[in-house]
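User: Sequence recovery, please. Input:
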C-alpha cells in the first residue's frame, strides 16, 4: 500500500512548505524508499505556463514536458528524483476534466458537485502519482494556506483519504509561521493556534507541526504549541530560517523528524542514511570562498524567484569550483537607456536567461555584443542563445536589422524563426517545444569539452522559436559553431562563438538539471571561464 504524507500551510504562504516537503522526501529516500512529490495548486489556471513570472515566479519544466510550479524544482533538487506530469495538478485541470466528462455524458445525468465529483477527481490525480512513478511514499503539498476558499476541495479530498486508505497510510504535516514582534522581542504562537483550529474544523489533525521562524524558538514555545494544538512536544519542529538552505536536511535529521514519520506510517528503514556527501557539500557552501561576480541580464530581475533554477545552478557551479558567486541582477531595459553599464562592466561573466516578448530585448542584445567584443564569458539560456545568434548575425551580416520573428516579424534576416509547421498556431498554452530532447554533441567544441562527451545528452526545452537553418552555412563561415544538434532532427541546440574564450548558448534550459552536488557541466564550464577572466583582469599589465 502506498503511504501518503500531506503538507498544508498555515498563517502565511511562502514560508518554505515546498522546501519542507522536498526535504522530508529526501530523508525518506536516504532510508531506501522510492518517493515522489506532488504539488496541488488551487488556482484555476490549467498550468503556470501562461502565467506572468511576476505573479508566479519561474515555470519549472519536467522531462515529460509538463510546465509546473517552481516548487517542483525544489523537489527535484533535494531528492534528486525526476518527477512526472502527474506531480503537479491544478484546480483548472480538475475542473476541465470533470466538465469534459459531464459533456460526454459520463455522469449519466447526475448533478455534478464539488463533493463527490471534484474531490473524487482530486483523489484520482493523487493516486496517479504512485501509478506513474511507482513511488512507495508520495508526499503531497497543498498550495496556499488553510482558510483559502480555493483550497477547500483539496483539503476535503485529503481528509477523505484517511478513511479511504487508513490512518497508518496517511500523515498530515502543517507548516506555519511564528511572527516576531519587534516591540517586545517575542515570537507569537497565536496565529499557529488559529490555523490549526481552522484545520481541525475541516476535519484534519496535524501529526507534525513545522513552526517556521526567523528567530530561535525557545522550548517553552514548543511546549505551548504542543499544548494548544494537541500534538506531542517532539512533533513540533522549530525550523529557523537558515542562510544555507542545503543545511536543513541535516537539521531535520538531528531533530529525528524521519523517525517520527517512519513510526507514524509504520515503516522500517531499509538503509542507514549516509549523509557524508551532503555534509561535505554543506561544509563547502559554508566555507568562506573568494567571490566571483556574474551578471544576469533579464527582464524580471525585480523578482528573483523568476530565475530560481538559474540562481541555484550558478550556486552549484560556484560551490563545485570554490567560488562564492554573487549575482548582479541587471534589468535589460536599463541597458537600453544607457544605465547600469558600469555594473555590467564590473562582472566577470554574463548570463542571459530565458524569456518571452519584445520588452528589453535590445538591452540583452547589447549585453551579448559587449560580451563578444570584450571576450567576457557569456552563457545564453534559451532566449539567451537566440540573443547570441541575433547579435552574431548583426555583426557577421553587417546589418542591425537581423532579428527573431518573435520581436520583428518582417525583418529581412530572420535568424530565429518559427518552423513552417508551427505557423498558424494561435493558442498560448501548451504550444511550445517542451520537455527533454536528445542533443548530439559535436566533437572539438566547448560544449563537448564541458560535458566531457561526444555523445548524446538529454536536456529540457520550453520555447517556440528555433535557429533558422537558412543562415546556418553563412554564419558558420563567419565563426558561429553549432556544437549541439537535435538528434535526427536538424535543429541547432547549442551555438558558440569560435573566436572567444566562452560564448555559448543553448536552445534548452540546462538549469533544470543542475543538482546541489552535481553542478551542470555547462554552468561549471561557464563559471570556470569566468574565474579565468577575473584572474586575467587582476593581473598587473
Ligand atoms: N521566446 C523564445 C521562444 O519562444 C525563448 C523562450 C525561452 O527563453 N524559454 O523561443
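Assistant: Recovered sequence (541 residues):
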Amino acid at each position: 500500500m502506498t503511504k501518503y504524507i500531506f503538507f498544508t500551510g498555515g498563517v502565511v504562504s511562502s514560508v518554505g512548505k515546498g522546501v519542507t516537503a522536498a526535504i522530508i522526501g529526501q530523508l525518506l529516500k536516504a532510508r531506501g524508499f522510492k518517493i515522489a512529490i506532488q504539488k496541488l495548486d488551487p488556482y484555476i489556471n490549467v498550468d503556470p505556463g501562461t502565467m506572468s513570472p511576476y505573479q508566479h515566479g519561474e515555470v519549472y519544466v519536467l522531462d515529460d514536458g509538463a510546465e509546473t510550479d517552481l516548487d517542483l524544482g525544489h523537489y527535484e533538487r533535494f531528492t534528486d528524483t525526476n518527477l512526472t506530469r502527474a506531480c503537479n495538478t491544478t484546480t483548472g485541470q480538475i475542473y476541465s476534466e470533470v466538465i469534459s466528462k459531464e459533456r460526454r455524458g459520463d455522469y449519466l445525468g447526475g448533478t455534478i458537485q464539488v463533493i463527490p465529483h471534484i474531490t473524487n477527481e482530486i483523489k484520482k490525480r493523487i493516486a496517479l502519482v504512485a501509478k506513474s512513478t511507482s513511488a512507495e511514499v508520495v508526499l503531497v503539498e497543498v498550495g496556499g494556506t488553510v482558510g483559502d476558499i480555493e483550497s477547500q476541495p483539496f483539503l476535503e479530498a485529503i481528509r477523505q483519504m484517511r478513511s479511504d486508505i487508513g490512518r497508518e497510510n496517511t500523515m498530515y504535516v502543517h507548516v506555519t509561521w511564528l511572527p516576531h514582534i519587534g516591540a517586545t522581542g517575542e515570537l507569537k504562537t497565536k496565529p499557529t493556534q488559529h490555523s490549526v483550529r481552522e484545520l481541525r474544523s475541516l476535519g484534519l489533525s496535524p501529526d507534525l507541526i513545522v513552526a517556521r521562524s526567523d528567530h530561535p524558538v525557545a522550548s517553552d514555545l514548543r511546549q505551548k504549541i504542543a499544548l494548544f494544538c494537541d500534538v506531542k512536544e517532539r512533533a513540533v519542529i522549530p525550523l529557523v530560517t537558515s542562510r544555507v538552505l542545503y543545511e536543513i536536511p541535516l537539521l531535520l535529521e538531528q531533530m529525528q523528524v524521519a523517525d517520527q514519520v517512519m513510526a507514524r506510517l509504520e515503516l522500517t528503514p531499509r538503509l542507514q542514511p549516509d549523509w557524508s556527501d551532503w555534509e561535505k557539500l554543506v561544509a563547502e557552501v559554508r566555507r568562506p570562498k573568494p567571490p566571483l561576480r556574474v551578471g544576469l541580464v533579464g527582464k524580471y530581475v525585480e523578482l528573483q524567484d523568476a530565475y530560481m533554477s538559474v540562481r541555484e545552478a550558478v550556486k552549484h557551479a560556484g560551490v563545485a569550483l570554490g567560488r562564492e558567486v554573487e549575482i548582479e541582477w541587471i534589468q535589460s531595459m536599463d541597458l537600453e537607456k544607457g544605465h547600469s553599464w558600469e555594473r555590467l562592466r564590473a562582472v566577470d561573466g554574463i548570463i542571459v536567461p530565458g524569456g518571452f516578448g519584445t520588452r528589453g530585448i535590445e538591452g540583452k542584445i547589447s549585453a551579448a555584443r559587449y560580451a563578444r567584443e570584450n571576450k567576457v564569458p557569456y552563457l545564453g539560456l534559451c532566449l539567451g542563445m537566440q540573443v547570441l545568434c541575433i547579435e552574431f548575425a548583426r555583426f557577421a551580416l553587417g546589418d542591425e536589422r537581423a532579428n527573431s520573428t518573435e520581436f520583428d516579424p518582417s525583418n529581412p534576416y530572420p535568424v530565429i524563426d518559427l518552423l513552417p509547421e508551427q505557423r498558424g498556431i494561435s493558442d498560448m498554452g501548451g504550444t511550445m517545444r517542451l520537455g527533454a530532447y536528445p542533443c548530439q554533441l559535436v566533437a572539438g567544441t566547448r560544449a563537448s569539452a564541458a560535458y566531457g562527451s561526444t555523445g548524446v545528452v538529454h536536456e529540457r526545452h520550453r520555447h517556440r522559436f528555433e535557429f533558422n537553418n537558412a543562415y546556418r552555412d553563412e554564419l558558420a563561415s563567419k565563426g558561429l559553431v553549432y556544437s549541439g544538434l537535435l538528434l535526427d532532427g536538424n535543429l541547432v541546440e547549442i551555438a558558440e562563438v569560435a573566436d572567444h574564450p566562452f560564448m555559448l548558448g543553448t536552445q534548452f534550459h540546462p538549469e533544470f538539471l543542475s543538482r546541489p552536488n552535481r553542478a551542470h557541466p555547462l554552468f561549471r564550464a561557464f563559471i570556470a571561464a569566468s574565474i579565468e577572466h577575473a584572474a586575467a583582469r587582476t593581473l598587473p599589465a
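The chain has two domains: 3-279, 289-416+497-538.
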